Amino acid sequence: MENENLLAIAKEYGSPVYVYDSSKIISQYNRLSKAFQKVKRLKLNYAVKALSNIAILKLMNSLGAGLDTVSIQEVQLGLKAGVNPNDIIFTPNGVSLEEIESVSALGVQINIDNLSILEQFGTKHPNVPVCIRINPHVLAGGNSKISVGHIDSKFGISIHQIPHILRIVENTGMNINGIHMHTGSDILDIEVFLYASEILFDTAKHFKNLDFIDFGSGFKVPYKAGDIETNIEEFGTKLTKRFNDFCKEYGKELTLGFEPGKFLVSDAGYFLAKVNVVKQTTSTVFAGIDTGFNHLIRPMFYNSHHEIINISNPNGKERFYSVVGYICETDTFATNRRISEIKESDILAFKNAGAYCFSMTSNYNSRYRPAEVLWHEGKAHLIRKRETFEDLIKNQVDLDIFNEIEESIS
């Protein structure tokens, strides 16, 4: 996308606003598919939690992707987007048996990550195929909050509890058709991923009726010029060979599954915000913008880096700014960042705003959540309207009891 396209969108739809470039999503999907083109059966299930707008889900469906979901609501969004239930996998954590049963009734692939629910579900529904999420006890990921495969993680069934799994499967007669793992996000070292994969292969040998092995995802994407990223091509070459060899050992052609989220949509997203005020203090120049961590929480939550460019003055002289939001609390997007000279009313663009950005927005400070726009084949399409005051109060219940209190006081 060009700066003039982004400026035109900000002018038409206001700010703040999220913008997604469909061509980037498509190219990332094709890149990942190509890296594993020598696998006979490949299934890429887009992680809905990264960006759950129905327009994005429809785009993924058109590309041939399935969906990785973590709540019944995400499943319902996928179905509303026209995705076949057979192309959806449900990988929740800590949800009730009732929610899992409700999703199963929709025809979706179930993935269970704890012994208690596995036994209860298997006892009641022994004929429903189930995938098992394994915790490989591998610490991987770019931040402790997004590392989910280590020994202290709440996710998955420990590899040391395989005998317990086998006992439950034998006692219930349930059908285990898949094995799954997810070690974390922002994984750079493919050797760590390959090491965890060997653990998954060893686990798979215990189950004789598998249809697929799901390796999760967590590939690192670049957040700035010159940043490092997961070498998908090298990883594809190495895991493809190992996977194909395993299929021969297993005696069956299995499906290789992944659940990319950030890899597909992160770099496709832009977050546009207007500069409300440029504030000079004794030590810092602040650029205060018309948004806050209620709209983009990742820098405050994960210390994540988002490149920020002044698209109103992209070729201006660079100066140092601390970019801050309007939330009544520490609300910092960037500290002492080199950005082209900023003036009030300029539009700033945050890059890598496609994954875990809008999906983590809130109404904190009673602010409205922003609009979303899809840039597709050279045109801007509004895919979510900006919230209004009516949206803010529509589910609140007005009580008359306070009139009685006021009358009693008076």
From TrEMBL:
Task: Provide the residue positions that the database annotates as binding substrate.
Answer: R298, Y302, E329, Y356
Which pathway, per its entry? Amino-acid biosynthesis; L-lysine biosynthesis via DAP pathway; L-lysine from DL-2,6-diaminopimelate: step 1/1
Q: Spell out the Gene3D superfamilies in the cross-references.
A: Alanine racemase (3.20.20.10), Lyase, Ornithine Decarboxylase, Chain A, domain 1 (2.40.37.10)
CDD domains linked: PLPDE_III_DapDC
Reactions listed under catalytic activity: meso-2,6-diaminopimelate + H(+) = L-lysine + CO2
Is the keyword Amino-acid biosynthesis assigned to this protein?
yes
Keyword Amino-acid biosynthesis in record: yes
- Which keywords does this chain's UniProt record carry? Amino-acid biosynthesis, Decarboxylase, Lyase, Lysine biosynthesis, Pyridoxal phosphate
Name the EC number(s). 4.1.1.20
Q: Where does pyridoxal 5'-phosphate bind?
A: G218, Y356
Q: Show the GO MF annotations.
A: diaminopimelate decarboxylase activity; pyridoxal phosphate binding
Which GO BP terms sit in this record? lysine biosynthetic process via diaminopimelate
Residues annotated as domain Orn/DAP/Arg decarboxylase 2 N-terminal: 23-266
Q: Which Pfam families does this entry report, sorted A to Z?
A: Orn_Arg_deC_N, Orn_DAP_Arg_deC
- Give start and end of each Orn/DAP/Arg decarboxylase 2 C-terminal domain: 18-354
Q: What residues sit in the active site?
A: C328 (proton donor)
Tell me where in this chain the PTM N6-(pyridoxal phosphate)lysine is found.
K49
Per its UniProt record, the required cofactor names are: pyridoxal 5'-phosphate
Q: What is this protein's function?
A: Specifically catalyzes the decarboxylation of meso-diaminopimelate (meso-DAP) to L-lysine.
The record's subunit annotation is: Homodimer.
UniProt lists the family membership as follows: Belongs to the Orn/Lys/Arg decarboxylase class-II family. LysA subfamily.
Which HAMAP family does this one have? LysA
Report the protein name in the record.
Answer: Diaminopimelate decarboxylase
This chain is encoded by the gene named lysA
